[in-house]
Amino acid sequence: MKMATGSYLLLAVGAVAALVFSAGPLGSSRLVQGLFAASIVCLLAGAFLRRVTGHRDAFGRNHGDELCRITAAMETLVRHLNRLVSIAPPADVAPSVVDEFFAAVSAKTTPPMEEFLKCRQVLRDGVGFGSFAEVMIAFAGFERWLNRCISAAADNETAEALYCLGVAQQRMSECSELLRKLDLPTSPSSPQLPT
């Protein structure tokens, strides 16, 4: 059962039960007093849940495009990294091939990373600080390994650069999984980044 439906159910049950028990002999029966108190607690719990889910629903309606762009950026990054790792050249090929490959790594990962980072404030506001912090810590781990990869490639340390690229791919998968668990809105009309 969705939380929004549960909040409406709690509100309805609490309100009806409070009305029924308030009509009874509240002053004379401990049982009726206990049931009345329980119905008031049920009503308050429903109101609290409605407030929480209402905020999230309204946030999704007002910032749905940005949240969809976050999801699209993450999916694009994962897709590009998976493809790049699958076509990575061996460490002993000509330097020109290695340079071309790592230039492609930078070119393919920079636009979706920038798009993801542009929308991070909306992500924090939408999912709360704790969940946001988990995603950003995982993203920082990915970014650190990708930077090491590009730095090693610039120093002609091809084997290390390829290793760092593989670790960056793993970190991005972890970050993507954390983001997927947040259940952000996606829509077919969400802006897609270039592939």
CATH topological fold name of the largest domain: Four Helix Bundle (Hemerythrin (Met), subunit A)
Name the overall outline. rod-shaped
CATH class label of the largest domain: Mainly Alpha
Largest sheet: none
CATH architecture of the largest domain: Up-down Bundle
Care to describe what's here?
The structure is a single chain. The chain has 195 residues and is mostly helical. It is built from six helices and no strands. The longest helix has 57 residues, at 30-86.
Keywords:
single chain, 195 residues, mainly alpha, Four Helix Bundle (Hemerythrin (Met), subunit A), 2 domains, 6 helices, 82% helix, 0% strand, disordered C terminus
What does the secondary structure layout of this molecule look like, with pairings?
Layout lengths: L2 H20 L7 H57 L8 H24 L1 H8 L1 H26 L3 H24 L14
Report a brief summary of the structure.
The protein is built from six helices and no strands. It has 195 residues and is mostly helical.
